[in-house]
Amino acid sequence: MRIILYTGKGGVGKTTVSAATALASAARGHRTLAISTDPAHSLADAFDRRLGSDPTSLAKNLWGEEVNVLEEIERYWGDVHDYLSALFATRGMDEVVAEEMAVFPGMEEICSLLEIWKHDLDRRFDVLVVDCAPTGETLRLLSFPDAARWYMEKLFPWERRIVTSLGPMVQPFVPVPLPKANVYAALETLFKRVTRIKEILTDQKRTSIRLVLNPERMVIKEAERALAYTNLYGYVTDAVISNRILPDEARGYFAGPGPVRRPRPAGDLLQGGRADGEETGGRVCPAAQIALPAQGGRAPAEARGGAGGLGGQLPAQHRSAPSTCRA
Question: What confidence category does residue 148 fall into, taking pLDDT thresholds of 50, 70 and 90?
Answer without folding.
Answer: low
